[in-house]
Specification:
This protein is of the alpha+beta class and 302 residues long. The chain has helices at residues 2-8, 12-22, 44-51, 55-62, 71-80, 85-97, 110-122, 141-146, 156-162, 166-169, 173-188, 195-207, 209-216, 263-273, 284-291; strands at residues 127-130, 136-139, 225-232, 236-246, 254-260.
């Protein structure tokens, strides 16, 4: 249960530091590797030197005996561990949360959930509402149709790793799986030690060695837009640009909107939605539904 051990022991900050230290080579900082080197990455004393702190203090951080590094220390660690903006923000969140392990972030209130539900229903493309643990909180009709046949569908990580047929449905499943793990870690942020996340990690680790291995690498993934490729059982190949829309003040909720990347995908989405469209004489509501899967005039797939 490697994936959940760091949380059950209350040391997400320590586990992150250990993992990222192992990924930085001495030559990245123009340090001599030395013939007797016993670790592939940096030694603890090297991280401490590069971060401008004592070796003893850094050892306490890695052992979980110190959980509240100052902002100056965190900035030094970001430099020493060569963290990009996403990883640096994640480290700062872990440091800010300090000893408050196991808390749960509040969700969205009913009124706001209702407003977002109406927003999803008005969107012209498949769309989902997910929280920081990748629970699928809400979905519009096209979002449901896009993922039809995949169960469980209450959480996107569960869908990717546990749903029968997922590895066929997601054309680039190996890469998607790695990104899903990294996104889950990045979005957990200050809730990295929560009971909610610990339970999810335990379940995924019990059923997927791929998940366990990827989680142990402590990689982070966060993009505003990314190309996703699906192989839908009814309409075939789909190329969709996934737009991630953050909802400020929502404790980590995001809207995922999937926009067709080419004309073929737009046509396929229209076929996918056809059973849900009214039949018979012309109906204004049907026209609205049809525009939801059509591309803007003049769109050339670029």
């Amino acid at each position: 249960m490697k994936a959940s051990r760091e949380h059950s022991s209350g040391e997400p900050l320590a586990a992150f530091l250990r993992a990222r230290r192992n990924q930085v080579r001495p030559e990245h900082h123009r340090l001599a590797a030395g013939a007797q080197r016993q670790v592939p990455g940096l030694r603890r004393d090297e991280v401490a030197f590069l971060a401008g702190i004592s070796t003893d203090y850094y050892v306490r951080l890695e052992q979980g005996r110190e959980r509240r590094p100052s902002r100056a220390v965190v900035n030094g660690l970001c430099t020493a561990l060569l963290l990009d903006d996403v990883a640096a923000r994640y480290l700062r969140e872990l440091s800010d949360r300090g000893a408050a392990v196991g808390g749960e972030a509040p969700g969205m209130d009913t009124d706001r959930l209702g407003a977002v539900h109406q927003l999803l229903g008005s969107m012209t493309v498949p769309a989902l509402l997910v929280n920081r643990w990748l629970d699928i909180v809400d979905s519009n009709v096209l979002g449901d149709l896009l993922h039809e046949g995949l169960e469980p569908r209450d959480n996107y990580a569960r869908l990717v790793f546990l749903a029968p047929g997922a590895q066929t449905f997601f054309t680039d499943w190996p890469e998607l799986a790695r990104c899903m793990v990294a996104a889950l870690r990045a979005q957990a942020g200050s809730e990295a030690g929560s009971a909610r996340l610990t339970g999810l990690l335990r379940e995924l680790a019990a059923h997927s060695d791929v998940f366990t291995t990827a989680w142990g690498k402590h990689r982070l993934y966060e993009k505003a837009i990314d190309r996703k490729l699906f192989r839908h059982p009814r309409v075939g190949s789909l190329a969709l640009d996934q737009h991630v829309l953050e909802l400020p003040g929502s404790e980590g909720h995001r809207v995922w909107a999937f926009h067709p990347a080419d004309g073929a995908t737009s046509d396929a989405l229209l076929r996918l939605a056809a059973p849900a469209l009214p039949s018979g004489r012309p109906d204004p509501e049907a026209d609205v539904l049809r525009t939801r899967v059509s591309l803007p005039a003049g769109y050339d797939g670029g």
